[in-house]
Structure formats: C-alpha cells, structure tokens
Amino acid sequence: MNNFGTLYIVATPIGNLGDISSRAIDVLRSVDKLYTEDTRVTNGLLKNFDIITSSISFHAHSDSHKMDLILKDLIDGKSVALVTDAGTPGISDPGNELVDYLLSREPELKIIPIPGASALTAALSVSGFNAREFTFLGFLPKKKLQAVYKQIIDSEIVVVYFDSPHRVIKNLEAIVGRLEDRRIFIARELTKLHETHYRGSAEKVLHQLKEEKNLKGELVVIIENKK
Questions:
Q1: Confidence of residue 214 (pLDDT cuts 50, 70, 90)
Q2: Which of 47, 103, 184, 201 lies 20 to 30 Å from 112 when distance is taken between CA atoms?
Q3: Burial of 22 from C-beta contacts in 10 A (0-12 / 13-18 / 19+)
Q4: Are 84 and 39 in contact, with CB atoms under 8 Å apart?
Q5: Where are the alpha helices (DSSP H) in 31-83?
Q6: Cα(71)–Cα(88) distance, rounded to whole angstroms?
Q7: Domain 6-114 listed as CATH 3.40.50.970
Q8: What residue segments make up the domains of the chain, in order of their start?
Q9: Shortest CA distance to 10 belongs to which of 89, 122, 96?
Q10: Contacts (Cβ under 8 Å, ≥6 apart) of 43
Q11: What is the pLDDT of residues 170-210, one digit of tens each?
Q12: 130-163 pLDDT, tens per residue?
C-alpha cells in the first residue's frame, strides 16, 4: 500500500464569495501545498476566509517541470490542492492536463474533486432551454472560426461557450442569420453585482448587446437546440 498524498481539485466562487463550500475552505486550510492559476486572485480569496496556506502558480504556460514538482509532492505524501481563478478547475483551464499527466505517471494517485461553482451549469440552470444534451465549446478560438461557427449552426442540441465582451458581438454576427428560430441566452457577470441575463431571439439578444454602452465581464453564451 502506497503512502501517496492526495490531490484535491477545488472549485472556488465565480464571483460571489458566499458560494464557496465549507468543505472547500477546510481543504484549502489543511493542504500542504496550494497551486493556483493566478496567485493574486487566489490570495484575495484566502485572505477573505483567513486561510494562511501560501499559493504557488500553475497556469496554462506552466511546463512539465512544474507538473513534476506536483507529482513529487504527492509521491512524498504531501496533500495538494489545485484551484483556478474562478469556478471548477479542469473546465477551460489546464487542470485537466495536470490530472492526465499525473495519472499517466502514477496511476495509483488519489485525486478528489471538491465540487462547487461552475459558470457552465449556473447559466444552463436559468436558461430555460432543454439541456438534457449539450455541447460545450469552452472559449471560442481566435483562429479557424469558420469551422466552429459551422459546428454551432449545424448542432442539433444545445451549444454552450464562453466569450469575452470584446468578441461576443462579432461572433454572434457571424451566425445570427443562420440560426433560424433558435433562441439565445447569455449570462454576464454571473453571481456578481452587475449580473445580467439576455434571452430571446438571436436578433433580439444581439441588439441588446449592441445597446450596452460599456459591455464588461465574462459571458456564457447558450444557443437553443433545433426544434
């Protein structure tokens, strides 16, 4: 029987700090090492809950050397937590790559999810669309968009993706005329003070976004399934 440590994949709030679970707080307080996408963001969260665990950066540009350090921590019996800036690690961030890397080298490692906030499921829950099946595209790429647009237009089920205020209008303009009668739901700044929902025909939602004088915050875009 091995004496490996445990890696905890910990979900953190996507905006409202009240959404963190007591279990997540307990884990963040108890682990030996805490790896995070942006230490500045996570340190603010830790300070709010009087957690003194120090954070170490692990992000999309971290190389295999950093993953090997985490692997060594676990093999040495240390407990480790991974968090992202907001939401659940492994969803549109390098958390899934880390888990795959670790298990490919040591399949007996214990990796435990500490569930919590997710912008994906939060937006789906208030969309009103039939989401028994859906396709999640993460953040749309900046290149080869035509293939992605075609995938969205041709999809028979609900499509969900993340977008930024600088690109959302351009992306919608590229597909709006080909969605037929499918509706769109967009959630902006989920759980935050200025949370806003846009829902209706593609043309209506696009018009609402264009009317915003200073569009800010990350957005979750949901496109209804074909009828």
A1: confident
A2: 47
A3: exposed
A4: no
A5: 39-48, 64-75
A6: 21
A7: no
A8: 6-114, 119-223
A9: 89
A10: 55
A11: 999 999 999 989 999 999 999 999 999 999 999 999 999 99
A12: 999 999 999 998 888 999 999 999 999 999 999 9
Q: Is the pTM of this model over 0.85?
A: yes
- Distance (Å, whole) CA 153 – CA 11: 32
CA distance 219 to 223: 13
Q: Tokens for 42?
A: 């996570």
Rounded distance between C-alpha atoms, residue 83 and residue 90, angstroms:
9
SS (H, E, C) 148-203: HHHHHHHCCCEEEEEECCCCHHHHHHHHHHHCCCCEEEEEECCCCCCCEEEEEEHH
Question: Could you give the CA distance from residue 180 to residue 182 in angstroms, rounded to a whole number?
Answer: 6
CA 50 to chain centre: 25
H-helix or E-strand containing 17?
none
Both structure tokens of 7 = 């890696």
Asked whether residue 1 carries a pLDDT value surpassing 70, the answer given is no
Do 220 and 190 meet the contact criterion of CB atoms below 8 Å apart? Answer: yes
CATH homologous superfamily of domain 119-223? Tetrapyrrole methylase, C-terminal domain (3.30.950.10)
Asked whether the beta carbons of 220 and 191 are under 8 A apart, the reply is: no
| Whether the Cβ atoms of residue 190 and residue 15 lie closer than 8 Å to each other | yes
Q: Structure tokens of 190?
A: 């989920």
Determine the Cα–Cα distance for residues 2 and 75; give it in Å rounded to an integer: 9
Q: For residue 27, which of 81, 100, 65 has the smallest C-alpha distance? A: 81
